[in-house]
């Protein structure tokens, strides 16, 4: 294996592939390598609809090899460490690669084991989760077998990918119960660790109205810490609204439990003190300038996507806006120019609210509402549901991963 490359990209997910494609177009002669162990690539935003029984999970997966850009070296291995002073990346197989420029984009890690009993419970006793390809079928199984009782939906403390996803499946499930005459026998409970439905005020108001209209029991400051699957009991730390301290534990009985696992930066990044933030809400994530996406200490390193410490939602829509900024700034750096491109924090969350409705939340840094379309996006719309179901997957596979959008 050649052990030196001009540009190395860690991660072949949404962020890594999109950047690789754009770099290849912008710098046809550049020597680019991408480190990615997986043979499969997933379009995760559709997992909500898979969990709701709208489609099969197989349509969300394609071969990684189809999306590695031509003339980009694919290194099928895990990155184990980065030495930013030596400009090297260590691989799990023992190899060491050197780089001139580095893009860190390995995504976010699912920490199933941080909730006692959760990992073992998925797929049994009504416990389910949309948050992986392996587990997403468990959600439709639990929902289709649900005959009444408590349907509980959780949202953990800390950073997660697509912060709106835990409530999307909650709305779908509630709609399913209404369609199947089960609502009167059921109670839908949202036990969320956060403080509001969504941080964007204009959208939060809409979601509060939906929750109230549909009689969904929202319990904020509730962080799932244990699943007693056999007894069908979920255990939550209940936190103080002002201090964040744990006041008590509360047990909630369930007949269905959709759990969103705690998430964090990948372990190999968390241990690298030179590259990541040591504390705060983005602890362990790569310390980059929020506008340029350049590392705040090591100027030949950039990061984007879920692994970057950016104060915005971790979504594919955010990556679509971040990638061209990163590529433009890397080109500037290589040419010895000042960095010219700036990322404004744009992210988007298509909030599925039923089997035929969606609220499209688009926003910038500081949760500033920034709709794209000349329509009222701050209400439930069928056309926005169609956008998510049919248009966005095409945009992703055919254009975004090809560096065209």
Q: What is the CATH topology descriptor of the largest domain?
A: FAD/NAD(P)-binding domain
Please tell me the overall pLDDT.
97
Q: Note the overall shape.
A: globular
Give start-end ranges of low-pLDDT stretches.
Answer: none
CATH-defined superfamily of the largest domain = FAD/NAD(P)-binding domain
Please report which band the strand proportion falls in: under 5%, 5-15%, 15-25%, 25-35%, 35-45% or over 45%: 25-35%
Any idea how many domains?
2
The helix content, as a percent range, equals 10-25%
| Main sheet record | 7 strands, mixed
CATH A-level architecture of the largest domain: 3-Layer(bba) Sandwich
Quickly give the structural class.
Answer: alpha/beta
> What's the level 1 CATH class of the largest domain?
Alpha Beta
Q: Radius of gyration from the CA trace?
A: 21 Å
Count of DSSP-assigned helices: 9
According to DSSP, the number of beta strands is 22
* Spatial gap, N to C terminus: 32 Å
């Amino acid at each position: 294996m050649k052990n030196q490359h001009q540009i190395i990209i860690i991660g072949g997910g949404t962020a890594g592939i999109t950047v690789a494609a754009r770099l290849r177009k912008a710098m046809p002669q550049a020597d680019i390598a991408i480190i990615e162990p997986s043979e499969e690539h997933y379009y995760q935003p559709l997992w909500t609809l898979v969990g709701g029984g709208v489609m099969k999970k197989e349509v969300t997966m394609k071969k990684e090899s189809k999306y590695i850009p031509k003339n980009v070296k694919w290194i099928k291995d895990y990155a184990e460490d980065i030495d930013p002073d030596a400009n090297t990346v260590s691989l799990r197989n023992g190899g060491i690669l050197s780089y001139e420029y580095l893009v860190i984009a390995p995504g976010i890690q699912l920490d199933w084991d941080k909730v006692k009993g959760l990992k073992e419970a998925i797929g049994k006793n009504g416990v389910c989760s949309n948050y992986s390809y392996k587990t997403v079928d468990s959600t439709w199984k639990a929902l289709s077998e649900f005959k009444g009782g408590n349907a509980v939906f959780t949202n953990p403390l800390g950073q997660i990918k697509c912060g709106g996803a835990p409530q999307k499946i909650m709305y779908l499930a509630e709609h399913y119960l209404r369609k199947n005459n089960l609502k009167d026998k059921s109670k839908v409970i949202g036990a969320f660790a956060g403080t509001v439905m969504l941080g964007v005020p204009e959208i939060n108001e809409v979601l509060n109205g939906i929750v109230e209209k549909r009689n969904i029991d929202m319990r904020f400051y509730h962080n799932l810490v244990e699943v007693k699957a056999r007894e069908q009991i979920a255990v939550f730390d209940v936190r103080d609204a002002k201090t964040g301290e744990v006041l008590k534990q509360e047990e909630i009985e369930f007949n269905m439990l959709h759990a969103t696992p705690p998430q964090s930066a990948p372990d190999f990044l968390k241990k690298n003190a030179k590259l990541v933030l040591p504390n705060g809400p983005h602890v362990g994530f790569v310390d980059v300038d929020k506008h340029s996406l350049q590392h705040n200490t090591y100027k030949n390193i950039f990061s984007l996507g879920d692994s970057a410490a950016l104060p915005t939602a971790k979504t594919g829509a955010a990556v679509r806006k971040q990638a061209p900024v990163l590529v433009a700034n890397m080109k500037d750096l290589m040419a010895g120019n000042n960095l010219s491109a700036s990322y404004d924090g744009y992210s988007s969350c298509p909030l599925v609210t039923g089997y035929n409705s969606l609220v499209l939340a688009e926003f910038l840094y500081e949760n500033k509402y920034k709709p794209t379309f000349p329509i009222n996006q701050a209400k439930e719309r069928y056309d926005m549901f169609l956008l998510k179901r049919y248009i966005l997957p095409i945009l992703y596979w055919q254009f975004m991963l090809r560096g065209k959008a």
